[in-house]
Amino acid sequence: MAVKTNNRILIMDDSLALLKVMSQTLTQHGYEVETAVNGAIGLQKIETFRPGLAIIDIMMPEMDGYEATRKIRHAYPDTSIVMFSAQPAAVVEKQAFASGADLFLQKPIREPILLGIAKKYTAIDIAAGEEEHETILHYEADQPYTVHIRTCYFCGCDHVNFFVPRPEAYEESWFNGIYPKYTPKEGFLKWDFIRTMVAVCPSCLFASYDINDFAVDAKHTSFPYSGDAKRILSRGIATRKKMIGVENTETIFSNPNRSIQRVMESFLLAEKGGNGLVIGDKDGVYCDIGFYTVTYAVLRYAMTRDKIEYHNNLRESINLFSNQLKIQNTSRVTRAKTYYFLIALNMATGASIRANEMKQELENFYRKIGGADDAAHEERIWNERLLYIWKEGVDADVIRELW
Questions:
Q1: pTM of the predicted structure, to 2 decimals
Q2: pLDDT averaged over the chain?
Q3: Looking at domain 8-121, which of 3.30.70.2740, 3.40.120.10, 3.40.50.2300, 3.40.50.150 is its CATH number?
Q4: How far apart are CA 314 and CA 178, in angstroms?
Q5: Helix (H, G, I), strand (E, B) or coil at 10
Q6: pLDDT tier for residue 118 given thresholds of 50, 70 and 90
Q7: How far apart are CA 317 and CA 341, in angstroms?
C-alpha cells in the first residue's frame, strides 16, 4: 500500500475566508496545514514548514501563483504543486503546467476533490516489485464480467465498482475503427456491459442522476449494489440533473437495464464531470473518459443519424485524448491506446492530415524509446488495430449499425 510520508500542506490564496474553509477541512482529516495570503509569504513559510503539497492560487498580490510555483519547483522539486483559479482553464491551465504544476483545478474546489488531492499528493509511489494489486470480487464461472475495485476518477477515493468484460466470455472486434463490437460466447450469461461501465465513487456519482441506478434490481438479484446505497447516492442529484438538462426526469429502477437514453446521459455526465476534475489514478484516466465520450457520440449517432453532431462529439473526445498525452507518466500501453484513438477519431472526422501527424508522432515515440519489439501484449494489439484502420479507414455507417 502507498504510505503517507508528509502530511503537511501549504495553501496560498488571498481570500482569508477560503483559506479558513480549506484549512479546517484538511485539519479535520489529519493534515498539518499552513496558509499564506500571497506567494512571497508562502515562500518564506515553505523554508521551515517543508510541505509535501502546495496548493496555490494563480491571482495573488505581490507574487502571483506562476512565479511562486516556478520558485518552489526549482528549490523544492519533491513538493507536489496543485494550482487553482477562478479563471477558465482554457486561459490559465497551459501556463500553470508550464510553471511546474502537477495539476490544475477550477475554483471552487469541492470537499471530496480537496481531500482527494491531499490523499494523492501526500503519498509516496509504490516501490518497484511492491505494486498494489487491483481487487477483483468473486465471480461465477458463467458470469461474463468481473467487478474490480478501483480509485474514483473524480475525488481519488477508493472502493469504486468497475465492470470489466471477461476476455474469455466475448469475441471482441474493432473492425469499425473507433468502437468495439462484443459477441458473447457459448456458456456465458448474456450481459449488456455498456450500461454499467462508468466508474465513479458514491459521493461523486457523476455517472448517474438516479439513485435507483445503484440499488438492487429485483429482476437481477446478483447485481452487486445494495439498497442501503440510496441514502448516500442521493447527494447532488439535482446538480447532476441540471448538468445535462433532465431536471424533471422521473426516477425508476433502471440498472443494469437502463434505456439507451439513460446510458447516453450517464456517459455525458462522466465526460462533463471528469473534464478538468480528474485527480484519481492518472495513468489512462483521460483516455477512459475520452472513450466514454466516444460511446456517447456513437449512441447518439445511432439514434439521430446526425453526422454533423456526431463529428462534433468526436472532436470533444479528441480533446480528452489529447489531454492524456500531456501527462508525463502515461504508460507505454496507455500511450499506444491514446494514439490509436487520436488517429482513428481524426480519420473519422475527415482530418486526415492531423491523423497522419499523429501517426508520425507515434512512430517518433517508438524510435525514441528504441522500438516497440519489447512492447507489452496489449500495446502490440493496439498497434495491430492501428495498422488495420489505417488501411481500411473508419466507416460511420458501420458503427451506427452496432446499436
A1: 0.65
A2: 77
A3: 3.40.50.2300
A4: 10
A5: strand
A6: confident
A7: 9
